[in-house]
Amino acid sequence: HTEDELSRSSHSNPGKSIVNGVKTNPASNSPKSGLPAPMGPPVYVDLAYIPNHCSGKNTDPEFFKRVRASYYVVSGNDAANGEPSRTVLDALLEGKSQWGENLQVTLIPTHDTEVTREWYQQTHEKQQELNIMVLASSSTVVMQDESFPACKIEF
């Protein structure tokens, strides 16, 4: 973008500005805007995928306080990038402890990692207290000469 284009785009849309060539909205509740998201009632869903392969980059206890799921999918199998993140798994415990109701929650890891195994063993008592179950499935699906782990979820 030229300086003229940047100037025009910010004047034509007064609620937005440009930072490093990216349009931003100061009232946005995006975590990157620097402003906290407005509080509201929690959202209840059957199934939620923990964002960013369960990386600590943008998932914290607030996510689990607001997004209350019967099932959370934990993907991530890249220890070098902190995926899955122990911090995020701990945030689940912290967020769920704030719910005020002891609804059953099932955590579905897509990979058997050292981080999830250690977290499971070290926090098992707290998981039971909070009514959190972790699926550890040894089921596999075989398709076109490939096999991979599988889990069945019923609603």
Automatic annotation (TrEMBL):
Region listing for Disordered, in residue ranges: 1-37
CC per GO annotation: cytosol; dendrite; microtubule; microtubule associated complex; neuronal cell body; synapse
InterPro entries xrefs: MAP1, RibonucZ/Hydroxyglut_hydro
Example of a GO MF term: microtubule binding
One GO BP: dendrite development
Compositional bias ranges of the Polar residues kind: 22-32
Gene3D superfamilies reported in the protein's UniProt record: Ribonuclease Z/Hydroxyacylglutathione hydrolase-like
PANTHER family xrefs: MICROTUBULE-ASSOCIATED PROTEIN, MICROTUBULE-ASSOCIATED PROTEIN 1A
Protein name: MAP1A protein
